[in-house]
Peptide O-xylosyltransferase (Sphingomonas endophytica), 310 residues
Amino acid sequence: MSGTIGFVLLSHREPEQLLRLVRTLNRLYGDPPIACHHDFAQCALDEAAFPGNVRFVHPSVRTGWAKWSVVRAFLAGLRLLYDHAAPDWFILLSGADYPIRDAAAVRADLARLDADALIDFRQVGDTVASARARFGPRNPELDQFESDGNRRLKWSHYEGAELWLPILRFNDAGRRVRPGRFTVHLPFATPFSPFSKQFPCFYGDHWITGNARVAQLLLNPTEQHLRVQKHLTMRAIPEECYYQTVLCNEPGLRLVRDNHRYAQWNGGGAHPQLLTEADLPAISASNAHFARKFAHGAPVLDRIDAMLFA
């Protein structure tokens, strides 16, 4: 056995879908400790409807897609989890994720892999071949992270210089106005980067599994980690850079590049496609522990339940 497992859940809508996920995790993992960061500013949620093993972050962080607030929300959930429990492992999920392997299989994999974290990663600037030679094979479902376009985009997001211009943004069909910024990406590296040859920049898929050592490392940032946080606060998609950079630069950590998550990107895009019953054969054939994304009430979830609880 690989020890106890806790969960950190991130959500901002569809409370019923979140509740279904929680109930399924409880059935599979025997009411594990669960810390949930739900963005109450975006969607109301009745906490009393949730089982007693679920704790919610208060006050919640106002999150936004591809913003540093997503990392803040995760770290708040991780702290809540370890303030009230001491799981050997934590698993980060969104409310649109769902388990596709039973708990015994997940624990067996964690024991067999003998790693500190299952995390998709590659160094900014690496080619596909150099990343594989240096770090080993990765999750085959995440090819889009190693496309030429994505590699150039990540350099621009994390290491390139940027010029920010103030603009006004209109919400609610023009009824609300708020200040915003327009980002101009410049074709040279920023002189203010926290990254160096001794502390390079890494990136990868957001969704990770880590042990208690990894949790404590993320919850107790060093001065170097705080510099990275400050840098990424104003950068796009920081949740696909921060954990990778912190963990890949930590000496002695054993990292497995296959994060055991199934997603269907169809070659790229900002979001994976919604999974349906047509994806079941590929989901079943994968070695993933969890899959994403699912629509609220998708019939495929009933099919997965039948597979898990046969």
DSSP finds ten helices and 14 strands in the chain.
